[in-house]
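Translate structure to sequence.
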């Protein structure tokens, strides 16, 4: 088992970076969807964080 981790020691770092990047992209997409105007042309919340 130690042989697997010693040969691929950079994989956990890459996995964490890809996870963080994916979460960031999800946040940006959600915020852009949130900032769209409603049917009446107004926004119901002050910011994405308050919703």
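Result:
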């Amino acid at each position: 088992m130690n042989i697997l981790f010693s040969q691929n020691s950079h994989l956990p770092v890459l996995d964490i970076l890809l996870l963080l990047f994916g979460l960031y992209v999800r946040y940006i997409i959600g915020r852009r969807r949130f900032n769209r105007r409603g049917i009446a042309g107004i926004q119901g919340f002050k910011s994405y964080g308050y919703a």
